[in-house]
């Protein structure tokens, strides 16, 4: 385990128009042809330096299930989620074990890393007061589908061997949001435990954006040329029913918190996916199981900018509230089940 040191930064509250203009002029044109993928990766990480993480977290490079991983832990919390002390500046804090998060970064399956998402990951770790594993799964075109999915599954299984499922949270943005759903479906189909909660931030659930000409032109990051480049690089089938997220049976999955913006490229697809989530929850008599939050504006993954946008921090706070609440409920249910089983065993022994 090698230390990357303490992250340190000061949060800002810049005007949204200024941030949106910067993204459209400086980042969006570079993501996609004619720029090579290697340069896109470099430029995304370079631009992310303007969205720094918060003070006080410890960042280490580790491996998780054989997958390269960056582990971010807030002060007073151990890597397994055990609490070793109160938050900085406080004499009180949670005394029980904390959630443990597996984070799957976005980047259209071909770009992205911990460095491009350090701000989001850092604020998530601090807000939830929980360790966050930001795995660096294999990217295309060097590794085609389903390499990244296999890495996510391996990392989740490694966490499950250390931490009970009722304390696990899986989260991701954009392409990583799709990977969250893929992971939940794979776990359900194989009969493995679901996490206590899942988070999908502006998931790229519909790669066939050409079906809606003119939609998402104000999106701050994603453009159509990038989608075409991704489709060719990943070689992910678009007509296989097991690889298409929209239209899948969504019952039997962990509670999901979904966020997206009204003017981003995938807004219509996210709305369709949200409707499927509601239908799946209602079909099992649990209409409040999932949570959907829609933000006005063009930001793709609004929550990814907590270092510079006040509304981004508010969006991330909703993620924290949802995840903490679901973990608390799942932990209480697990404890009650254990007590019931122990009581039953005692009665039989008597």
From TrEMBL:
<feature type="region of interest" description="Disordered">
    <location>
        <begin position="75"/>
        <end position="97"/>
    </location>
</feature>
<dbReference type="Pfam" id="PF07859">
    <property type="entry name" value="Abhydrolase_3"/>
</dbReference>
<feature type="domain" description="Alpha/beta hydrolase fold-3">
    <location>
        <begin position="101"/>
        <end position="284"/>
    </location>
</feature>
<dbReference type="GO" id="GO:0016787">
    <property type="term" value="F:hydrolase activity"/>
</dbReference>
<keyword id="KW-0378">Hydrolase</keyword>
<protein>
    <submittedName>
        <fullName>Alpha/beta hydrolase</fullName>
    </submittedName>
</protein>
<dbReference type="InterPro" id="IPR013094">
    <property type="entry name" value="AB_hydrolase_3"/>
</dbReference>
<comment type="similarity">
    <text>Belongs to the 'GDXG' lipolytic enzyme family.</text>
</comment>
<dbReference type="InterPro" id="IPR002168">
    <property type="entry name" value="Lipase_GDXG_HIS_AS"/>
</dbReference>
<dbReference type="InterPro" id="IPR050300">
    <property type="entry name" value="GDXG_lipolytic_enzyme"/>
</dbReference>
<dbReference type="InterPro" id="IPR029058">
    <property type="entry name" value="AB_hydrolase_fold"/>
</dbReference>
């Amino acid at each position: 385990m090698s230390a990357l040191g303490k992250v340190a930064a000061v949060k800002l509250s810049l005007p949204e128009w200024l941030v949106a203009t910067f993204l459209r002029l400086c980042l969006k044109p570079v993501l996609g042809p004619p720029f090579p993928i290697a340069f896109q990766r470099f430029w995304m990480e370079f631009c992310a330096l303007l969205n720094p993480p918060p003070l006080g977290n410890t960042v280490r490079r580790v491996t998780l299930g054989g997958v390269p991983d960056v582990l971010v832990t807030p002060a007073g919390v151990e890597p397994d989620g055990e609490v070793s002390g109160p938050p900085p500046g406080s004499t009180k804090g949670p005394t029980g074990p904390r959630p443990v998060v597996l984070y799957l970064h976005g980047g259209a399956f071909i770009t992205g890393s911990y460095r491009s998402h350090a701000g989001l990951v850092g604020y998530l770790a601090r807000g939830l007061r929980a360790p966050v594993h930001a795995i660096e799964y294999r990217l295309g075109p060097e590794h085609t589908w389903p390499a990244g999915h296999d890495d996510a599954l391996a990392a989740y299984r490694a966490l499950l061997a250390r931490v009970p499922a009722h304390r696990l949270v899986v989260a991701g943005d954009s392409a990583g949001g799709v990977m969250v759903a893929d992971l939940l479906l794979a776990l359900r189909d194989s009969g493995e435990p679901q996490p206590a909660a899942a988070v999908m931030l502006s998931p790229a659930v519909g790669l066939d954006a050409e079906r809606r000409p003119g939609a998402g032109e104000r999106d701050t990051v994603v453009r159509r040329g990038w989608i075409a480049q991704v489709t060719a690089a990943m070689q992910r089938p678009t007509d296989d029913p097991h690889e298409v997220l929209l239209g899948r049976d969504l019952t039997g999955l962990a509670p999901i918190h979904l966020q997206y913006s009204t003017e981003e490229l995938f807004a219509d697809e996210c709305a369709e996916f949200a409707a499927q989530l509601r239908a799946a929850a209602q079909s099992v008599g649990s209409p409040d199981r999932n949570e959907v939050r829609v933000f006005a504006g063009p930001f793709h993954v609004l929550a990814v900018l907590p270092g510079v946008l006040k509304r981004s921090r508010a969006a991330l706070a909703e993620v924290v509230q949802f995840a903490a609440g679901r973990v608390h409920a799942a932990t209480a249910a697990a404890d009650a089940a254990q007590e019931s089983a122990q009581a039953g065993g005692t009665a039989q022994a008597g």
